[in-house]
Design brief:
single chain; alpha+beta; Growth Hormone, Chain: A; Jelly Rolls; 2 domains; 5-stranded antiparallel β-sheet
Length: about 600
């Protein structure tokens, strides 16, 4: 499936700042991120000054990622089960206290620096997914792209100030002052979080430690069963090894050894990288809706890799700074697009777990990359930097062909045009009975249907119908009553939710895909238009028959997996009939047992595709 934002009417990129809670969280993140950069720069410089070892610097960088291996997934469960505002507030206060201890304990033994940095990173594993999961709750969908771009500036772009200040402080000879300032920034962020109004996600059911395993499985199920999220997994792994691991760990040693830079020039290099990121984020705030998220990812990684190669081959600090600044600009494209993909394709009650799953993957493979950076002590450091950059280019190439990411822009524009030109009412036309040949074709496309018993096959043959639709036919339309679901036997259909001048949640369906099952099972009206993008042949399944088919082994899991993907793209603002439902009822809708009972579970209708 392919998801796009095709709305033509875009609000101002800065309109989200009218929302007080967003402004407070943005300000808190901006200030605390300056402190983070002070901590990273100060810790790295202090370790390198005392050891002169690239491996030791890599080990310090690994200390910032290692905690994710222990608490990352559990943190996601906590974020989804408890008040996210309290989690962020506690995390800020704890980090302020931890960082304040560094100047005191590092004079006793350098090992305390590793321990306290790791402890701060452990607490951050709770804060980061809580913030990512909260953002869609305080920014509406039409402002979410700009909100992510602007939040990326506060979460990364302000490191320009922090890294430059860290390098300057080190050059003046008092690097430990950086840790004191970091503690102050966390206290400031806590104040901003306290003043913000953050909706609390209602939670029912078991919230004990015994429920952690079940919650983790639910989160991974969403991740694996959602095609576009699944496509992000290999990209995340390669990026973590190459960029998060090797690249980040080698920046300081490369600057000193290969470029002959001093600590201030290193800090300036890091800072201007962040300036590039800020500019890229501002561009994304304005243009994010012009291309699909997958296209931004392809462009961003290709540009990052090319700039990385230029950096690795440079012999001038000025040229190196220019290359990493442009790399920072490209990084903004991938950062904003990746976050949007995870937010828009994950159900709100699963966001914490999915965000944490990606964080853990980044940490695991980032640590591997950081340990690989230790090879720079025995081989040419330039070779490692160029290798990491070529791997980043490979990410862009891979993303261009992965499901959900690599569709050409002209194709999704064509699909949007098909939707706009279609009639406003659904009319599949003349239907004919299902034949054994039709059934065999469907089973070949949907192997799970092989599990149907004789009565199930007869039910489908007797009550199902076949319809053919030429290009441009409106199969179902938003607001129409729902009486059936549809399996695609041949051709292609496209679905989207109309929004004024355009469509959002655009997705296409080919042979073997199905749509309309949620609305059919709940009795709700359709929430999207579905139009034939090519001549299409469909098998129409009445709601009553579909409920009986849900009893077949594997059929419930097949449908609920698709529902997880579609519910993630459906905003409750589109569903006034079900706007008051709590999360327990939403989870019931995704439960196979609820679907196979023959009744009509109370749940929201989702996008038809």
């Amino acid at each position: 499936m392919t998801t796009v934002s095709a709305s033509l009417a875009q609000p101002s990129a800065f309109a989200v700042f009218r929302r007080r809670s967003f402004t407070l969280l943005w300000t808190g993140q901006f200030v605390s991120t300056i402190g983070d950069a002070l901590l990273i720069a100060g810790a790295g410089i202090l370790i390198f000054q005392r050891t002169n070892s690239a491996f030791s610097v890599g080990l310090m960088a690994a200390a910032t990622l290692g905690p994710a291996l222990v608490v990352g997934l559990i943190a996601g469960v906590v974020v989804d089960r408890y008040d996210r505002k309290k989690i962020m507030l506690a995390a800020d206060l704890l980090r302020a206290g931890i960082v304040a201890l560094i100047p005191i304990l590092v004079s006793v033994d350098l090992v305390f620096l590793y321990v306290l940095v790791a402890a701060s990173a452990t607490v951050s594993e709770f804060f980061s997914p809580a913030l990512d999961a909260t953002l869609p709750e305080i920014a509406p969908d039409e402002e979410l792209g700009a909100a992510n771009s602007l939040m990326a500036i506060s979460s990364f772009g302000s490191t320009a100030v922090g890294f430059a200040a860290g390098g300057l402080i080190a050059a003046l000879g008092d690097v430990q002052l950086a840790f004191v300032l970091d503690a102050v920034t966390f206290a400031f962020s806590a104040g901003c979080t306290y003043l913000a109004t953050i909706p609390r996600i209602p939670v029912s059911g078991d919230t004990s430690i015994r429920a952690v395993g079940s919650n983790l499985r639910d989160g991974f199920r969403v991740l694996v069963q959602t095609p576009i999220l699944r496509s992000m997994l290999p990209i995340t792994i390669i990026y973590a090894i190459a960029a998060v691991g090797i690249w980040n760990a080698l920046l300081l040693p490369f600057s000193v050894r290969a470029l002959g830079a001093n600590t201030f020039q290193y800090g300036l290099q890091e800072g201007l990288t962040s300036v590039g990121f800020v500019i890229g984020s501002l561009v994304m705030a304005q243009l994010v809706g012009r291309l699909r998220e997958g296209q931004w990812i392809v462009l961003g990684y290709l540009a990052m890799g090319l700039m990385g190669v230029a950096y690795g081959l440079s012999h001038s600090i000025e040229l190196a700074i220019a290359a990493v600044a442009l790399s920072g600009f490209a990084n903004a494209l991938t950062s904003t697009a990746g976050r949007l993909i995870r937010q828009r394709n994950t159900p709100r009650e699963f966001r914490g777990r999915v965000m944490s799953a990606f964080s853990v993957l980044t940490s695991v493979f980032g640590i591997i990359g950081m340990l690989m950076a230790g090879l720079a002590d025995v081989i040419d450091i330039r070779l490692l930097v160029v290798f990491a950059s070529l791997a980043t280019i490979a990410i862009g190439v891979v993303a261009a062909v992965l499901p959900g990411l690599g569709q050409p822009a002209d194709e999704w524009r064509r699909l949007a045009q098909v939707l706009r030109a279609a009639p406003p009412r659904g009319a599949l036309g003349t239907l004919r009975p299902v034949t054994l040949s039709d059934f065999d074709s469907l089973v070949g496309l949907v192997p799970t249907l092989r599990n149907l018993d004789r009565s199930g096959r007869e039910d489908l043959l007797v009550h199902g119908q076949i319809g053919d639709a030429p290009v441009g036919t409106c199969i179902v339309a938003r607001g129409e009553p729902s009486t059936a679901a549809y399996f695609v036997l041949a051709g292609k259909a496209v679905a989207g939710t109309p929004t004024g001048d355009g469509y959002r949640s655009l997705s296409e369906m080919g042979p073997g895909d199905f749509f309309g099952e949620i609305a059919a099972l709940t009795g709700a009206t359709r929430t999207a238009n579905v139009v034939a993008a090519e001549p299409v042949t469909l098998l129409e399944v009445p709601a009553a028959t579909l409920r009986r088919l849900m009893k077949a082994p594997g059929m419930g899991e097949l449908v609920t997996g698709k529902m997880n993907e579609r519910l993630a793209r459906t905003s409750l603002t589109d569903l006034p009939k079900f706007g008051g439902l709590d999360q327990a009822e939403l989870r019931d809708l995704r439960t196979p047992a609820a679907m196979s009972m023959g009744g009509t579970p109370a749940a929201p209708a989702a996008s038809e595709a």
